[in-house]
Automatic annotation (TrEMBL):
<dbReference type="InterPro" id="IPR036388">
    <property type="entry name" value="WH-like_DNA-bd_sf"/>
</dbReference>
<keyword id="KW-0472">Membrane</keyword>
<dbReference type="Pfam" id="PF07553">
    <property type="entry name" value="Lipoprotein_Ltp"/>
</dbReference>
<feature type="domain" description="Putative host cell surface-exposed lipoprotein Ltp-like HTH region">
    <location>
        <begin position="74"/>
        <end position="120"/>
    </location>
</feature>
<feature type="transmembrane region" description="Helical">
    <location>
        <begin position="20"/>
        <end position="38"/>
    </location>
</feature>
<protein>
    <recommendedName>
        <fullName>Putative host cell surface-exposed lipoprotein Ltp-like HTH region domain-containing protein</fullName>
    </recommendedName>
</protein>
<keyword id="KW-1133">Transmembrane helix</keyword>
<keyword id="KW-0812">Transmembrane</keyword>
<dbReference type="InterPro" id="IPR011434">
    <property type="entry name" value="Ltp-like_HTH"/>
</dbReference>
<feature type="domain" description="Putative host cell surface-exposed lipoprotein Ltp-like HTH region">
    <location>
        <begin position="123"/>
        <end position="170"/>
    </location>
</feature>
Length: 171
């Protein structure tokens, strides 16, 4: 009886540890994918260059904000956040506004988000092209599917002109 109980405890222990290890493995994979930007082929050098570029952009935005010291802190925070999204996630203008103001996003006021959009340094056509290339390479989507996803309100929310530019510049 004692042997059966000991064997059951060992089996239970192994089962619990298996579940924990699998869960940790999945968690590590998700974190790695998020940190790599799901690009897969980015090198460490490009990652550190991106981080330094983002830091430089954030510093420039902070310097601009310090010139406008009469601005509420929320406005400068919204601008910093917007610049990070534009530089790393390559968002559309509408997608950026929605993210900044969303209750499930950053929860900035509409005025702060509008200020951020007016002052963020962004090339939305280039952002659309970067996203389109990702769809083409990672998801093997057709040009029509890519365009539809880029302009979709439940997708990337780029303008038709930005999506057309992106699709026409795919290889």
């Amino acid at each position: 009886m004692a042997k059966a109980l000991a064997a059951e405890q060992v089996t239970t222990w192994h089962t619990k540890n298996k579940v924990i290890l699998i869960t940790l493995g999945v968690l590590v994979a998700v974190i790695a994918a998020v940190l790599s930007g799901c690009g897969g082929d980015k090198s460490a050098a490009s990652g550190s260059a991106s981080v330094s570029a983002m830091a430089q952009t954030k510093e420039e935005a902070s310097q601009q904000a310090s010139k406008d010291s009469d601005l509420p802190e929320e406005y400068t925070s919204a601008l910093d956040t917007a610049q990070q999204y534009v530089d790393t996630v390559h968002m559309s203008k509408k997608g950026l506004y929605d993210q900044l103001t969303s209750d499930s996003g950053d929860k900035f006021s509409a005025k702060a988000a509008t200020y951020a959009l007016a002052h963020v340094k962004a090339d939305y056509k280039a952002n659309a092209l970067k996203i389109a290339r990702s769809y083409q390479k990672q998801m093997k989507m057709s040009p029509k599917e890519i365009r539809d996803q880029l302009v979709s309100d439940s997708g990337d929310k780029f303008t038709g002109a930005e999506a057309d530019y992106a699709v026409s510049h795919l290889k």
